[in-house]
Amino acid sequence: MNDTNLSILLLLSFALLAAEKTEAEMCSQYEDEDHTELFHKYRPRYPKKIFEIIDRKLTESTDRLPNELREKYKKNDNGRWREALDIGCGTGISTLMLVDFVQESFGIDSSKTQIFKAKVVSYGMKDPSRVTYLNEDALMISQMFSENSIDLIVSGQAVHWLADRAKFYEACMKVLRPGGLLALYGYRTHEFEDENAEKIKQEFCPGMTKDFEPKEVKHLDNSYKDIFEELKTLYPNAERDDSFTDHLESTIDHYAGYLSSWCAYRNYKKVHPGHPDILDDVRDKLKEIFPGDTLVKTTAKYFILFVTKEV
């Protein structure tokens, strides 16, 4: 290695450390092993419909390319796109959903604990070689992947944590191929269809969210409205899709597990370790309506933001 390459490598190392520190300060709770287990066990899986919508949008943008580029970037013989990145992949919930649509997927997250869990989960795949997990910072993707090489970049419930989203968008546009797609998606808090159960949950939430919810989570509360405005300012072709609502069933215990994975609850427990558990209280109240293993219906409203890389 010559001196020039060594200097570049050192500069990249310092930049990566700085970026990791910034993101780690905002998402440090995801380094906790217990939280990672709760996250993977109780966070809802993304419906396949979300990825079908994304796949259709990428197909449309690819079909609009000039003939030569359209032929170059079309799906392979297996009906899959070539490569995709899942930013803020966590335990791989989204990454594994990509395998039906993409030949090779890369899950990227700055949390070592989450990446370790993702790798353990992926061992059960039929073809684990098609998924690679990287413990890296999202802002460094333009250093990790070649220009014009990636078909699709997705990020589920994660981009709001990034300290410099404008820099992230710029990196995405650099590595996406012409007609490639950036898709940011998520959902608002799952709501009970039963009015009395939803009222109990709404009484529970302010006790945590007022003082203990990270400020970044407000972006989820408003369905990424502010983030969409950011995108529209930088990329006028940005679009959004709010058409999909998922309907789920779970027990009260499972729903309480979902609430226990919230950052706000984890922060609350750190400050009030000796207090009566606020989550036990809400679970008991909900079980008065839905006892035992009774299944309760909930809904989740999804949103997807799109930016296509122009030719």
From TrEMBL:
One of its GO terms (molecular function) is S-adenosylmethionine-dependent methyltransferase activity. Residues 1-24 form the signal peptide. Keywords: Methyltransferase, Signal, Transferase. One of its GO terms (biological process) is methylation. It comes from the Eukaryota. Pfam families: Methyltransf_11. Gene3D superfamilies: Vaccinia Virus protein VP39. Residues 85-183 form the Methyltransferase type domain. Belongs to the methyltransferase superfamily. This is Methyltransferase type 11 domain-containing protein. It comes from Helobdella robusta. The gene is 20197409.
